[in-house]
Amino acid sequence: MVDPRRRVPRTDTILADPRLTAATATEGRAAVKAAVVATLQRVRDGELEPEAVIDAVLATLPGGLRPVLNATGVVLHTNLGRAALSPAAREAVVAASGPTDVELDLTTGRRAKRGRTALAALQRAVPTAGDVHVVNNGAAALVLAATALAAGGEIIVSRGEMVEIGDGFRLPDLLESTGARLREVGTTNRTTVADYERAITPQTGFILKVHPSNFVVRGFTSAATVSALATLPVPVVADTGSGLLAPDPLLPDEPDAATTLADGAALVIASGDKLLGGPQAGLLLGAADLIERLRRHPLARALRVDKLTLAALQATLTGPATPTWEALRLSPEALLARTQHAQTLLAKAGVDAEVIASDAVVGGGGAPELTLPSWSLSLPPAYATRLRTASTPVVGRVERDRLLLDLRCVPPSSDHLLVDMVIAVAARPTPDPADPHAATPPGRGSADSAGSPPAARHPAPRGRRPAEPAGEG
Ligand SMILES: *Cc1c(COP(=O)(O)O)cnc(C)c1O
Q1: Which ligand 1 atom is nearest residue 271's CA?
Q2: Strand pairing report for 154-158 and 204-210
Q3: Residues lining ligand 1, judged by CB closer than 6 Å?
Q4: What pLDDT digit, counting tens, does each position of 357-415 carry?
Q5: Ligand 1: distance of its center to the CA of 211 in Å?
Q6: Would you state the CATH architecture of domain 67-84+322-473?
Q7: In a 3-state reduction of DSSP, which class is residue 359?
Q8: Is 410 helix (H, G, I), strand (E, B) or coil?
Q9: What CATH class is the domain 87-320?
Q10: What confidence score (pLDDT) does residue 432 get?
Q11: For ligand 1, mutation pick of 271, 275, 313 (most atoms within 8 Å of CB)
């Protein structure tokens, strides 16, 4: 019997492994060396085979944000960072990452309006907006509007629109944190124009309309429209959430900026990383005098966006279709063909996967009622953890004790990578019994629900009702 201590590799030999030199470049030599020393101790203690040292070291390094394949069937998955940027937006981010003319006019050599080309692109996309402004996210846009237009005064809002946007954050709390008071009107299910009208006082800053982006109220309901509210003598601020700039026939229930402005809203607020398919951002579009008040407010400086956001936003607005747009419109036939091809490749490698019909959803607080007919690879649930911890993590979802991998949100050029990851983890010797149901990150049904896809339609018939509504985050 060989004493296992005789087989312990040297620290320097391990550190010279190319995979670890690559890690050293991003994580620093001290962190990598500490991980190697600790891991070699496990070999000495007989807990780990010497051959497994490199993998074990890599597994203990904290790492940065890692690229993940989104096989959840949730197009805008909050826990996976919502919208995937288009290749054009990614290139723009890289190009802007060094010194860039974000606030300089290169022709005159003078200081110029920050992000003017991105703002101009947004303005061109919604020509009816008097002016536009961009802040860090939708919540920041709300805070800026509430602070600049209603601090010390009142915001009138329907009791049916006092929503939680996810992860425990509630719009009423967010608005009141600015020093504005909320004047609640109507009831959960019904609010009329007269309710708003009666609440108007000299203290009123604006009427807020919030799109119920992550839930629906059905039955005996009524709400005042933006066009009806626009007849009242105070500005209407519409939080549309989704980020659609113009109507989209695929999403008839989602509001859009152009229509909401045409209906008479003074200001429209939306997120950049939802249906628009861009970077995290809060878009403000509307009356030029209101936008100017927001832009001039001291808080605007604290909420201003980074040059990378401006670069990505501009490329999203002017570039080709976004991955979000494409994932929403992917035909079931094309998806089935890709899924079957993946199944064939897996079968050749000895991995048995089924192809089943499933439903995908928009997620990210958009179109809670809409399901997209989809197809998935179905695998035993033990694959969930293994694939999440693969060298390129693959995140699917577990339903009815099967792991479903929906290729809808996987770039077609990454289908092979996904197949390779499944084959790689299928070869892992010991099944991992731990945590078989955690295929998706926390979120299903929780406060920060990123949009839980409804149950697969297999073996249930097509068209059954979703098990739970898509949430937000
Ligand atoms: C998503 C959403 C928000 C929050 O926007 P973020 O960009 O996530 O800050 C606010 N209101 C509505 C209606 C939303 O859908």
Answers
A1: 7
A2: parallel
A3: 137-139, 165, 210-211, 213, 239, 241, 271, 282, 365, 472
A4: 999 999 886 788 789 999 999 999 999 999 998 989 999 999 999 999 999 999 999 99
A5: 9
A6: Alpha-Beta Complex (3.90)
A7: strand
A8: coil
A9: alpha beta
A10: 46
A11: 271
